[in-house]
Amino acid sequence: MGNTILAAYTKINLSLNVLPRTGAYGYYRVMFVNTQVDLADRVRISDSPLPGIRINQQAVEPSENLAYRAACLIGERYGIETGVDIDIEKHIPLKAGLGGGSADAAAIINGLDAHFGLSLADHEKNEIAQKLGMDVCYCVMGGLCTVGGVGERIERVSHVTPVLDLLIATPRERKPSTAWAYSILKEEDMGRHLDQYEHLLDGIERGDTTAIADNLHNDFEYPVGRHYPVTVRIKEAMLSGGAPGALLAGSGLSVFGIFSTRDELMSTKVRLEEQGHQCFATKTVA
């Protein structure tokens, strides 16, 4: 079967709303609008003459590695005994709100499905993804989607948003964890901007980039910014640099900005890099 090679794309939330009531298993209910950008890890799956699964990410213990766990789940569920080598070439910053680990795990689910000809249905992939984390459920499907329930209800948006030119900036600081970000959310921070969620979807339907930029929202942005003001400074730099909209990415600490002109994007990138932030000029993918 040779090699199967996939791109594991960065995830960003154009709208991230956490509802104050919890759902199944104590998880918070959510209302997201997610899309992907062309900053991506490269995942290669290769046959091996040796039994078992090997993965090249030595910095992460296999038991803590979502991609490794995804491969084990599929191997156990579908009785795959062939040896597999998994090589992940990292480009997405780790633990930065960009869903890199979830994207890698989703690429493994989709990649092993293709590599071994399993022909998995969407609901089968979703069942596996739920065991790994709700962001994996979205990343398995990818593209422009709404996300509901506790993160397991993924629906593709039928309208294709215009390609958005983005600048992503990741500071040196790292938050403790996503669980920590949820722990600092207060009820008054949750689900108070669902009108912007609807306006965003309307802007996407109309292909109105201005409306999209105007209605970006993230319930984590204010509480995380209280603890990590660097995220506020990055957002302010993007807005002052000409971005019509900017937002904390996921639970942080990366921030992305939508730019109307390449010159403004690149000049802002230079300024933020001079301040020590890791920056990526990128764009959304369909």
Care to describe what's here?
With 286 residues, the chain is an alpha+beta fold. The chain has 2 domains: 154 residues, 2-Layer Sandwich (Ribosomal Protein S5, domain 2), CATH 3.30.230; 121 residues, Alpha-Beta Plaits. The chain has 10 helices and 11 strands. Strands 1, 2, 3, 4, 5, 6, 7, 8, 9, 10 and 11 form an 11-stranded mixed beta sheet that branches. A hairpin with a 4-residue loop joins strand 5 and strand 6. It is globular and about 55 Å long. The mean pLDDT is 93.
Layout of helices and strands, plus pairs?
Layout: E1 3-22, E2 28-48, E3 53-55, H1 66-78, E4 83-89, H2 100-115, H3 122-130, H4 134-141, E5 145-148, E6 153-156, E7 165-170, H5 178-183, H6 194-206, H7 209-214, E8 217-218, H8 221-227, H9 229-240, E9 245-248, E10 255-259, H10 262-274, E11 278-285
Helix pairs in contact: 1-2, 2-4, 3-4, 8-9
Task: Name the descriptors.
29% strand, 286 residues, Ribosomal Protein S5, domain 2, alpha+beta, single chain, 36% helix, 11 strands
Give the number of DSSP strands. Answer: 11
Query: Helix share of residues?
Result: 25-40%
Shape: globular
The CATH class of the largest domain, by name, is Alpha Beta
Task: Identify low-pLDDT runs.
Answer: none
Structural class: alpha+beta
The CATH topology of the largest domain comes to Ribosomal Protein S5, domain 2
Give the radius of gyration: 19 Å
The tally of domains stands at 2
**How far apart lie the N and C ends?**
28 Å
Give, in order, the helices and strands. EEEHEHHHEEEHHHEHHEEHE
CATH architecture of the largest domain: 2-Layer Sandwich
Oligomer, anyone? Answer: single chain
Give the rounded overall mean pLDDT.
93
Determine the strand fraction and express it as a percent band: 25-35%
Give me the number of helical elements: 10
